[in-house]
Design brief:
Blueprint: H1 22-31, E1 46-47, H2 59-65, H3 76-88, E2 93-97, H4 100-107, E3 117-120, H5 125-133, E4 137-140, H6 161-171, E5 176-182, H7 195-208, E6 212-215, H8 219-229, H9 238-247, E7 251-255, E8 266-270, H10 274-287, H11 298-311, H12 314-333, E9 346-350, H13 351-354, H14 364-376, E10 378-379, E11 381-383, H15 385-388, E12 404-408, H16 416-431, E13 439-443, E14 454-457
Parallel strand pairs: 1-10, 3-4, 3-5, 5-6, 6-7
Antiparallel strand pairs: 2-8, 7-8, 9-12, 11-12, 13-14
């Protein structure tokens, strides 16, 4: 249930944004091959491309930047960050990285052998890419309800435990590298994973001798949903829920650009495996940097140390998730099909339902992204077949079970007036949705193609 509330902060600095004329927007998107990643930030009015590194830091975090210790080794900010991680997450060992994909690039070679499967609820694009680049195969084992956008389920990010068990039995334990739990589950629509399901996954892992890791980019948002939706956790503190959540894993990778509320940063954190930690320390040096900075300046680590302590504050989480819920409710009332219930960091529009005349191989959600920019200067992102890519063995275009447009809300950046502008834009597009056409490639990279591919409209 939506609850109207004021933001738990005051604004002390603003950044000017402008809506350029529609004819200019149409020209800009054509020039970049109908790929919104190619647009300049100055051409965007409301930027919902990602919540990664796009949030607004607090005055406390900005103050921390002035305390940056830029020593090459042993920076005091590293130890401040270590204390925050121990206090909030409960893990003993960590190395900083420049962002989440840096963490995956360091950790995954230590865990994956050629041809092994990595079992996840639903892998995101960079995670899937790093698994495949290390010779592994990413397998999605999320519950079927995640694929029904109109079905209400409080934890659509949950693993299907029967599928998980059957897959391990069928392929053999020796062919499975590890299990990774993505919290919240981005590709399923920012959907949370229940504590009950995390416990069940851990039981399966223990039965077969498999390791459990977390993709922890939005860990605090997941904990907030557990508190609000799962019986027995309504009276627990967010930090208490977080520590229990991570107690069922051996380690994590994190893009701290999300729930760390920083513009750059990431980490690998491990509970107690000293041998794996030593491997991580050795790997991080040639890839990211010395283990006590790992691709980050001292001031970046200080901002992250403080951001981790801010993100667990319940009034912040209530405001943050409440704004996303506000946008989702308004779109739903306007007749725009969305993934329900609304997730933590974004509203996901069901482009397959909105544009059923555009087939998956012509990327309906990407067509909707282009139209949204033309309509109102709003930049969103496709989470569907365009992002999913091709089968690594056959090179055939894969069909995503979901064709979603993600409206990703940066933290502490926009007001609900901006949310209302987004809703009006969708209302206008909805009136002419039957006129929208799909897209095909003029340039297609082999890895993570959606970032730099170029497209053309289907005539």
């Amino acid at each position: 249930m939506y609850e109207k509330m004021a933001e738990p902060y005051r604004i002390k600095m603003v950044e000017t944004i402008k809506l350029i004329p529609k004819e200019e927007r149409e020209k800009r998107i054509e020039e970049v091959g109908y790929n919104q990643f190619g647009l300049k930030s100055e051409d965007i009015f409301i930027d919902l491309l990602t919540d990664s590194g796009t949030g607004a830091m607090s005055d406390n975090q900005w103050a921390g930047l002035m305390l940056g210790d830029e020593s090459y080794a042993g920076s005091k900010n590293y130890y401040n960050l270590k204390d925050s991680i121990k206090d909030i997450i409960g893990y003993n060992y960590f190395v900083p990285t420049h962002q989440g994909r840096g963490a995956e690039n360091v950790l995954f070679p230590l865990l994956i052998k050629e041809g092994q499967y990595v079992l996840g609820n639903m892998h995101f694009d960079t995670t899937k890419a790093h698994i495949e680049l290390k010779g592994g195969r990413a397998v999605n084992l999320v519950i079927d309800d995640a694929y029904d956008t109109q079905k209400e389920h409080p934890f659509k990010g949950d693993f299907d435990i029967d599928k998980l068990t059957s897959f391990i039995e069928d392929k053999g334990v020796e062919n499975c590298a590890f299990i990774i739990i993505t919290v919240t589950c981005n590709s399923a629509g920012g959907q949370p994973v229940s504590m009950k399901n995390i416990k069940e996954v851990k039981k399966v892992a223990d039965k077969y001798g498999l390791r459990v890791f977390f993709d922890a980019a939005r860990f605090a948002e997941n904990a907030y949903f557990i508190k609000k939706r799962e019986k027995g956790y309504e009276n627990k503190e967010i930090k208490e829920i977080i520590k229990e959540m991570f107690s069922y894993g051996e380690g994590l990778t994190m893009s701290a650009k999300k729930d760390g509320i920083v513009n750059m940063g990431g980490m690998i954190a491990l509970k107690e495996d000293e041998e794996l930690f030593e491997g991580v320390r050795q790997n991080v040096i040639p890839i990211e940097g010395f283990p006590t900075y790992g691709g980050l300046s001292g001031r970046d680590m200080e901002a992250l140390s403080r951001g981790l302590r801010e993100v667990v504050q319940e009034d912040y989480l209530q405001s943050r998730i409440g704004q996303v819920e506000y946008l989702g409710r308004k779109l739903d009332e306007a007749g725009i099909p969305i993934q329900k219930p609304v997730g933590g960091h974004a509203v996901f529009v069901d482009a397959k339902k909105m544009l059923p005349h555009i087939p998956y191989h012509q990327f309906p959600a990407q067509a909707l992204c282009v139209e949204l920019y033309k309509e109102a200067g709003i930049r969103a992102v496709e989470i569907g077949s365009f992002l999913l890519g091709r089968d690594p063995d056959t090179n055939e275009q894969l069909e995503s079970p979901l064709e979603l447009l993600r409206l990703t809300i940066p933290r502490r950046v926009y007001t609900n007036n901006h949310m209302d502008v987004i809703v009006e834009a969708f209302k206008n597009i909805n009136e002419r949705k039957d006129q929208l056409k799909g897209y095909d490639f003029t340039y297609e990279p082999k890895v993570l193609r959606h970032f730099i591919a170029k497209l053309k409209p289907i005539e």
